[in-house]
């Protein structure tokens, strides 16, 4: 798009919004300030249990993962942090990694522990980790999480994200209450080792890899466990961790009402934990989630700054960097649209029982084309006007393949 055409689009939108009493400058600064962390494991090709197709030029180590995120940061100005997964991303020299990240303008978001795979540790997690009926296995899983905290401390991270694959495949395999009790005790041991300025983000997921029962299947169980730990433990909402048709925006509102929302793992899905690009399947749902977030923060349910933002995606078919550019753009668009909602009028419609009016207000915001706004915010922050076009024009993937090889494989899923 030409610069001239872009400027005309911004002026037109600015005029339209001014008529509604919305100041475009304030919108631009909010959009620019909003940053979303990228997970280290999204930079390589993911896979399914049937196969994995290499994209070529995948980062071969943590340094190269940082390079890719640095590139994303430079092009999009929508991310300034990476979320690491241990043991996939154990730094050989934490000081040097911290230094490199700082040079790229990247900080370390929440650290992720991994007790859902065996990677050479002495006891197997096949039958679970923090909830395992065997105390020695629980202890090993606790120690792993403490090790992750230590690594995070050395990098300047301020959070630990825990996702448990624990559960059972068949009735009778596990004792529901004991498994929950053991999980609570294990989490308490981990929480007690967390620095005072850290937060613990506890994920939930209804099924997979276990298909009969999962120890932390829903937000209620996660919230219950967090409450047993203390004020710095909160619930992490991964958009893919819900049964089809779940009203996720209501869950967000309920958690904010309790001050229990830790943050997000953004992705999208058609069926389950599909980890598809955010906004590619259900953009209206993403917008409604942001409406709750913006409304909840404005009405002081929970401060905007207390919420962590992260992508959690996996790519079997797309170039991961292109996918992340698209995801960051979709998230920014959903946020921008939610900022356009006339909340005072909406509240009025709710009082008057004006269902049609309420729907019109939401759809008016959702159907506003905010692409010029998001682009303008990015350009003003020093990013590329069209990051995807730039990435393709500069043949960045080809250059990465030339440097890292056709069959390089990033550690991760
Ligand atoms: C599990 O499905 C999950 O969403 C958790 O966040 C993990 O840490 C992540 O995927 C990567 O395996
Ligand atoms: Mn997740
Ligand atoms: Mn997931």
Automatic annotation (TrEMBL):
Record-linked Pfam families: AP_endonuc_2
Entry annotated with the keyword Zinc: no
InterPro entries: L-rhamnose_isomerase, Xyl_isomerase-like_sf, Xyl_isomerase-like_TIM-brl
Keywords: Isomerase, Manganese, Metal-binding
GO molecular function, one term: isomerase activity
Superkingdom of the source species: Bacteria
SUPFAM superfamilies: Xylose isomerase-like
All residue ranges annotated as the Xylose isomerase-like TIM barrel domain in the record: 90-274
Keyword Isomerase: yes
Listed name of the protein: Sugar isomerase
